[in-house]
Amino acid sequence: MADEERGKSFLAEAEKKIKSAGTFFGGLFGGAAKLEDACDLYIRAGNAFKMAKKWSAAGGAFCEAAQIKLNDLQNKHEAGTQFVEAANCYRKSDFEEAINCLQRAIEIFTDMGRFTMAAKHHTTMAEIYETNIMDLEKAIHHYETAADFYKGEGSSSSGNKCLLKVALYSAQLENFAKAISIYEEVAATSLESSLLKYSVREYFFRAALCNMCIDMEKAQNAVTKYQEMLPAFEDSREYNLIQGLITAHENEDVDAFTEAVREYDSISRLDQWYTAILLRIKKNITSDLDLT
Question: How far apart are CA 246 and CA 226, in angstroms?
Answer without folding.
Answer: 15
